Amino acid sequence: VQLFDISGRAPLRQFEGHTKAVHTVDFTADKYHVVSGADDYTVKLWDIPNSKEILTFKEHSDYVRCGCASKLNPDLFVTGSYDHTVKMFDARTNKSVISVEHGQPVESVLLFPSGSLLASAGGRYVKIWDMLKGGQLLVSLKNHHKTVTCLYLSSSGQRLLSGSLDRKVKVYSTTSYKVVHSFDYAASILSLALAHEDETIVVGMTNGILSVKHRKSEAKKDSLPRRRRPAYRTFIKGKNYMKQRDDILIN
After folding, report:
1. Distance CA 41, CA 81 (A)
2. I need a labelling partner for 64 at 20 to 30 A (CA). Which of 42, 116, 223, 226 fits?
3. pLDDT of residue 219
4. Cα separation of 129 and 146, whole Å?
């Protein structure tokens, strides 16, 4: 695992310890540590200032292909593996604190900003888990025809996106978990991301093409709303009203 300064080409840090291909890396919330997962079935936590390995977790029994760190707690991070499990690790306990069975080889995991919900993708399924209830399954979505390879959450948190080998990107509402939009592409999708404020979607495909789509800007609305004229029924209201006993009639 190598750490680079984006202004230069030489690596600032290099962490050696994995024996096979590394598939996922992420910074922890405090930015002083990096978590990584690899095909050697291990998950490792690295200390950036000292360039040293702090912890190694060997609880997965197959390739570790995806992972993410909590944005709130620097000690928590999640990994997904081809052993069909998603595990949440706590650096303070040296072991996993939650483990859920996805049912398919896990290709992508995503923690919601609050840290209370977790999304996992594998096979044709996208599953949402409640981490506050020990990893209870909330909903299982099966809207793709082939393996789901990637997940992404919009900046507002109101939309969840999934990309698949069926060449489609599905957009879900995070309140109803129903598909509200879909994008079609020319090849199978391996990765996707949204730019700031969700104005641009970027998709990487198996044919080597990186697709960039921009959202059309909405037409500017009038600064002053138009005054609505009263409807005709407003003027004839009460035309057929019958005088009651205590009413006073004025012609």
Report:
1. 8
2. 116
3. 54
4. 21
CATH homologous superfamily for the domain 15-214: YVTN repeat-like/Quinoprotein amine dehydrogenase (2.130.10.10)
- Rounded distance, CA 27 to CA 176, Å? 31
Domain ranges of the chain: 15-214
Q: Is the pLDDT of residue 29 over 80?
A: yes
pLDDT tens figures, 188-222: 999 999 998 889 999 999 999 999 999 876 655 45
Instruction: Tell whether the model's pLDDT for residue 146 goes beyond 90.
Output: yes
Residues in the chain: 251
SS3 232: helix
Distances (CA, A) of 103 to 53, 100, 107: 31, 9, 12
Distance CA 32, CA 34 (A): 7
Give residue for tokens 């024996």. Answer: 19
